[in-house]
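[Amino acid chain]
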Amino acid sequence: MAPEAENSFAHAQRQFDIAADMLDLSSGLRRILRVPQRELTVNFPVKMDDGSIEVFTGFRVQHNITRGPAKGGIRYHPDVTIDEVRALAMWMTWKCNTVNIPYGGAKGAVICDPKRLSMNELERLTRRYTSEISLLIGPDRDIPAPDVGTTAQEMAWIMDTYSMQTGHTVPAVVTGKPINVGGSQGRVEAPGLGLVYVLRESSRALSLDITGAKVVIQGFGQVGSVCARVLDELGAQVVAVSDSQGGIYNPHGLPISDVLAYKHRTGALRDFAEADNVTNAELLELPCDILIPAALENQITEANANKIKARVIGEAANGPVTPAADAVLYDNGVFVIPDILAGAGGVTVSYFEWVQGLQEFFWTEREVNAQLERVMVNAFQNVLRKAHERRLSMRTAAYLLAVERVAQSTLTRGIYP
């Protein structure tokens, strides 16, 4: 598919501009909220297993901290750029405020391919990167979490590194940690489960029976695989899934438990016996009721938007639909649940994990899931109400709610000094 000229940060700014125009924000507020508040770029050495030294580049960007500490994942990817991190940090601000939790948005990244690094190299890289960004992070300042290319293990290394530098254990400095070092029950499943909650609510709003609905999922990591499993348990028919190497398609439905076992055994999805191979581009255009982009940004563009056959799109990934494609989908009657709502399950339970870490009082998985459902359903209904009242897309409605919350908090606090 032909990439659009603008990058992710330009897309994020254009989405903000639409909301700012509709809210009639002052020029001063626009200048504040349109750009990140802080940006840190670090170049740091790592000793490799063969004794050589490699220098890696990393970033930590804080978009906004008006309503609370910055919150956002850390991405390890060979193609990540500072503009991508800026966009992701801005989207995190709106995501946190769409579900009305007291965080601002941040994002971090290291330019690397984690698949080409040993566990020892990953640990040394993570610990050194943590040391480099330690002047920004902290349990009351900026709380990282896993993202593309990172896992609970990297979060444990970050927590340990920060704690060693501080002189005492600080569980609340990161979320998405292993449970045995202060992680929360239900955190791994939260992004996928949160999306399923809003898909269930949207199906009710659209009179679409989720039982038997055909579902296509691009991306079969923690989010996509959980979505597939839970939707399969609800009676939906998952007909196609994919990972970075490609996907598989069976119009009569995939046996999800077998697909999960195959992926675990082989490390890939392609060549699964009970399905046909498809590319990631082809997968997006398959006939289905629900499409879940759960991979990377800019997957649905102006070039392929008219070929999308789904009735509902649940954006599990950050920024998978470009602004130009968004307009096409809206005109075509596709109900898009935006990333700042659909993908908010992870940060919601990260908030729960942070609260548990600060209080040193931990919840059961049932309590976590019940609170997650409450937050996600309430946020969906608020966005849907705004969309109906103003006759807007769900994305624009979500942005209006989120941007207005941050703008009003900024006005209330005032400008220092």
